[in-house]
Amino acid sequence: MDEHTCVVRFGADSLDRIALELVALGTDFTLDGPPELLDHLRVVAERLLRPAGQNPVPEGRGQRRWRATS
User: Fold this and answer.
1) Cα gap 31→7, rounded to integer Å
2) Above 80 in pLDDT, residue 67?
3) Residue 22 lies in a domain
4) Confidence band (pLDDT; 50, 70, 90) for 66?
5) Which DSSP letter does residue 3 get?
6) Rounded to 10 degrees, what is the CA torsion of 15, 28, 7, 3?
7) 30-55 exposure pattern, b = at least 16 Cβ within 10 A, e = fewer
8) pLDDT of res. 41
9) Does 67 fall in a domain?
C-alpha cells in the first residue's frame, strides 16, 4: 500500500454483483480473490466485448447467442 493504492473488500450474494461493484469503481484494479471470480470476470468481459464488435473467443467455442429485446 502507498498513497496511490488501497484495499477494497467486497462481499455479495452473487459473482455478478461483485463484477458490477468492481466496474463501478471506475478505475483499474488488481484482483486477489477466488479463482471462480476471475473466471466469472472473463465471461462478463467477453459478453461486454461482443456487442462492441470485439470477440475474444474464437467463433463456435462455447458461445451462446442471445438477442436483447425491448
Assistant:
1) 10
2) no
3) yes
4) very low
5) T
6) -170
7) eeeeeeeeeebbeebeeeeeeeeeee
8) 92
9) no
CA-closest candidate to residue 55, choices 39, 63, 28: 63
27-50 pLDDT, tens digit each = 888 888 889 999 999 999 988 888
Does residue 69 fall inside a structural domain? no
Range of the domain at 50: 1-57
Q: Which helix (H) or strand (E) holds 64?
A: none
Q: Is 42 part of any domain?
A: yes
Number of domains the chain is built from? 1
Where helices occur in the chain by DSSP H, the ranges are: 15-24, 35-49
